[in-house]
Amino acid sequence: MSDTQSYEPRIVAFLCKWCTSAGADLAGVSRIQYPANVTPIQVMCTGGVSPMYVLSALRKGADGVLVSGCHPGDCHYIEGNYLARRKLHLVKELLGFVGVEPDRFRMSWVSAAEGAKFAQVVRDFVEDLRPLGPQEKVKADRS
Amino acid sequence: MIKIQDIRDAARDMLAKGEVRAVIGWQRGSRGMAAEPVVINAPEQADGLVWDPTCYHNLSLYLVNDKKAQAHAKQKPTLPIAIIAKGCDARSCVVLMQENYFRRDDIYIIGVSCEGTGVIDERKLAVALGGVKPTSAAFDGDDYVVTLPDGSEKRLPAREVMADRCLECREPFPKENNIALGEDKTGRALEAPFAALARFEQQSEAERWNYWQRQFDRCIRCFACRSVCPMCFCDECVVDSIEMKVAPTTSAEEKASRVRWIERSNTLADNFGYHMTRAMHLAGRCIDCGECERVCPVNIPLRLLNNKMEREAREQFGYEPGASIGGPSLVSSFRDDDPGTWIR
Ligand code: SF4
Ligand code: SF4
Ligand code: SF4
Which of B26, B323, B315 is nearest to B170 (CA)? Predict the structure, then answer.
């Protein structure tokens, strides 16, 4: 990144196919403005988001990782998001424990009808990531 | 106090009566005072078994190895295999059974209680003895008695040189057992559980990262910690990306684009990936036998990571690894009131 460019956080977002992906689409078709810092990756269910996805994204240089899926009770696979909640809580705790800012990892519940909420989640995340600066701690050194 | 003769008799009897096909235990080693794991399958070999403060190995690893060897030889054993198990070893047997790696009647647990002591931490002992290497060690009440090379004996309060995990151990008695020897001293924890963890957590985020950065940087990725852990029984480990099946028809593109979750090189980023993944894969399964930390050639404090996950499981999810054979594992279950306020 050149000095003249200001820092723009790069977010990798794992979005569940049934709720948040549709919510993100809705934000798009509703022409709701939100920062273009997110690289969305569609997954079938947040329950299938392995901790490795999060770690790997950080290793590959993501400044923040977002996992977003259906609200509790609304999971297409009945309980995938509950399993994700437990597993990803542990990931977040572990990140904080070793001293990687836990704020670089975020999870949210966004339904297919919540286009506005999706935009807000992204806006908030970008703003919260800005003061943290680029994530260099666990980014693989390619030099 | 457990008499070694009782352990030998139990093992000899079982083998003589043909109740088990082998007994996994400890024998005198070839490296100074340390006992070494042994698998015996004839009654007369029972006399070589030992029980002393150097029996730190978690023998359930050898159950896993036995199972793999049986599978490799395409054998289906008809008799169970017996294992001499301390409290922590018995807990790891429970996790293995909970995960359906074994059925309960595949194994016969000869429990040995740690009775108020635990096992020696060789690193602490080396400091206490100024580097002098003892030739043997024995339990004596709340003390260890070590024999020095010149033949003299030295008495050391066990809690000064015992392994950290033993200080915090709440269950030195093997709860899951077929027979158990020794006194049940459950609840004898010499230090508050997670005491070391709590001390570590007093530090700021920057200090903690400083610490772990240094630790992860030092890891040489020898994978001893993985090899020694009874819970790391997967046939294929995610860090071994070279194990991708390559057939004559596999294209160069397929080879190049295979998923490499974690590279094998020991860079900080990949060591971080390895250790975080390891901690996650052991969350709710690690029973704090301390073997990973003991075998690490560069003294990476792996127990801190494991303990963090263990305490989280206990406090946030009411989950205790190794407590019962029935029931789901930590990450394959949930409760409606799992913490969720952190989710936006
Ligand atoms: S952790 Fe507990 S059961 Fe295991 S060796 Fe130490 S005292 Fe014994
Ligand atoms: S933590 Fe220690 S035992 Fe494990 S791979 Fe690294 S150097 Fe080896
Ligand atoms: S992670 Fe370490 S302490 Fe936990 S079960 Fe495995 S070897 Fe034992």
Answer: B323
State whether A109 and B207 contact (CB < 8 Å).
no
A106/B344 CB distance under 8 A: yes
Render pLDDT for B166-180 as a digit per residue (tens, 0 to 9).
999 989 999 999 999
Q: Is the CB of B288 under 6 A from ligand 3?
A: yes
Please choose, from the candidates B40, B44, B14, the residue with its C-alpha nearest in 3D space to the C-alpha of residue B27.
Answer: B40
Distance CA B37, CA B35 (A): 7
B155 backbone dihedrals φ, ψ, rounded to 5° = -100, 130
- Tell whether the torsion through CA atoms of A29, A34, A40 and A43 is positive or negative: negative
DSSP character string of A24-50:
HHHHHHTT----S-EEEEEES-GGG--
Band of residue B244 on the pLDDT scale cut at 50, 70, 90: low
On whether the CB atoms of residues B22 and B33 are closer than 8 A, the answer is no
Of A90, A100, A107, the CB nearest to B312: A90
Place of tokens 């269950």: B171
Give backbone dihedrals phi and psi of B84, rounded to 5 degrees, phi first.
-90, 125
Cβ–Cβ contact A104 with B under 8 A = no
Convert the pLDDT of each residue in A82-122 to its tens digit: 999 999 999 999 999 999 999 999 999 999 999 999 999 99
Q: Could you give the angle at the alpha carbon of A109 between the alpha carbons of A108 and A114, nearest 5°?
A: 115
Q: Indicate the length of chain B as a whole number.
A: 344
Selecting from B207, B209, B339 the residue whose C-beta is nearest the C-beta of A89 gives: B339
List CB contacts (< 8 A) between B207 and chain A: 99
Atom of ligand 2 nearest to the CA of B274: 5
